[in-house]
Design goal:
- Helix content is 44%, strand content 21%.
- The chain is built from four helices and five strands, in the order H-H-H-H-E-E-E-E-E.
- The termini are far apart.
- The longest helix has 27 residues.
- Strand 4 and strand 5 form a beta hairpin.
- Strands 1-2-3-5-4 form a five-stranded mixed β-barrel.
- Helix 1 runs antiparallel to helix 3.
- This is NfeD-like C-terminal domain-containing protein.
- InterPro entries: NA-bd_OB-fold.
- Keywords: Membrane, Transmembrane, Transmembrane helix.
Length: 171
């Protein structure tokens, strides 16, 4: 019975470390993965923790044999591991999984929030991948607050070039 609790304890400890420190076991898991990416350290550790807990509980609370406790642990571990894998993949592949870069701003519509003078910077507001962003902006000529613009170039960190796409539309 002790082996089940040791497996559960070590797996839970590693799972907590993986969640807090990052997936430091993933290289090891990648080396043995034959599932096409469905196997991850989160899945393996969730399986092992559940296997240990269920196996230990079955031995401690029933008169089940070690074989039956092991089978119960495997079934429960497979269910929990599959759930952990599905949740991890949903979070990883979700719509906000894309790291927004300055290249994502080019071609996006925006609204001028602080007028852009012909020889200086103004400010625009735009939404990229569901995230609202404010950027400094330059234009070839003056652009009033509220005007619709399109980002045409990235000029540097947090600075873009825009062209007017609509007439003055106050916010």
């Amino acid at each position: 019975m002790l082996i089940f609790w040791v497996i559960a304890g070590v797996a839970l400890l590693l799972l907590v470390l993986t969640v807090t420190l990052g997936d430091f076991l993933d290289g090891i898991i990648d080396a043995i993965d034959v599932t096409g990416g469905y196997l991850s350290s989160t899945v393996v550790l969730a399986f092992l923790a559940t296997f240990g807990i269920v196996g230990g509980l079955l031995l401690a609370t029933t008169d089940a044999s070690v074989l039956l406790a092991s089978l119960g642990g495997v079934v429960a571990g497979a269910v929990v591991g599959a759930g952990a894998g599905a949740a991890t993949r949903a979070l990883t592949d979700g719509p906000t999984a894309h790291q927004i870069t300055s290249g994502d701003y080019v071609g996006q519509p925006a609204t001028v929030t602080t007028s852009i003078p012909s020889d200086g910077l103004g400010q625009i507001s735009l939404v990229v991948a569901g995230q609202s962003t404010a950027l400094a902006a330059r234009a070839d000529g003056p652009v009033p607050t509220g005007a619709g613009v399109t980002v045409v170039a990235n000029l540097g960190p947090g600075v873009v070039k825009v062209v007017t796409t609509s007439s003055h539309n106050p916010l």
